[in-house]
Design a protein that fits this description.
The protein is mainly α. 54% of the residues lie in helices and 2% in strands. It contains three helices and two strands. A hairpin with a 4-residue loop joins strand 1 (96-97) and strand 2. Helix 1 (4-17) packs antiparallel against helix 2 (28-91).
């Protein structure tokens, strides 16, 4: 079967060639061929849209399966952490070695904040961020009919496949 582009080009060609320039009569064979091409065009669009729907459906299934797999992985990680904590309590800092597994310990240091309000300013870092609000800009341009320098409202025609 031809591509959508090829079908559209054939329809345009037939539409031009269908009428005899001298007599103004319509060629019945070309008319029948044009009708078939229009049916092919419609069928092609339908098939493409159905394929797109299938792709969206498959993607949703994969996303759901990914969520299930992520949940399983998280459960297994939590189980491993509980098992390690259990053994850690029993070993109490002692090394453990067998031909299949080994436990070694290393010291680390971390700071625990007990009360942030008591921490002197010299140990604090301040952050400021600026973010452009597209929602506020859209409201200003669309509802309040204001002009916002550096921004414009785009009107899009979004296709929805049902």
């Amino acid at each position: 079967m031809s591509t959508l582009y090829e079908i559209r080009a054939d329809i345009e060609t037939l539409t031009r060639e269908m009428v005899d320039p001298e007599t103004g009569e319509i060629d019945e064979e070309k008319m029948a061929e044009l009708e078939q091409l229009e049916l092919d065009h419609e069928q092609k669009i339908e098939n493409i849209l159905l394929l797109a729907k299938n792709c969206v459906s498959d993607a949703k299934q994969h996303e759901e399966e990914s969520k299930v797999q992520k949940e399983k992985a998280d459960r297994l990680k939590r189980k491993a952490a509980r098992l390690l904590e259990y053994v850690s309590g029993d070993l109490d800092g002692k090394d453990f070695t067998t031909p299949k597994v080994e436990v070694a310990w290393r010291k680390s240091k971390s700071v625990e904040i007990l009360n942030e309000d008591l921490i002197p300013d010299e140990y604090k870092q301040y952050e400021t961020t600026c973010k452009v609000s597209k929602t506020l800009i859209k409201k200003a341009i669309d509802k309040e009919e204001k002009e916002v320098p550096g921004a414009r409202l785009l009107i899009k025609n979004n296709m929805r496949v049902i």
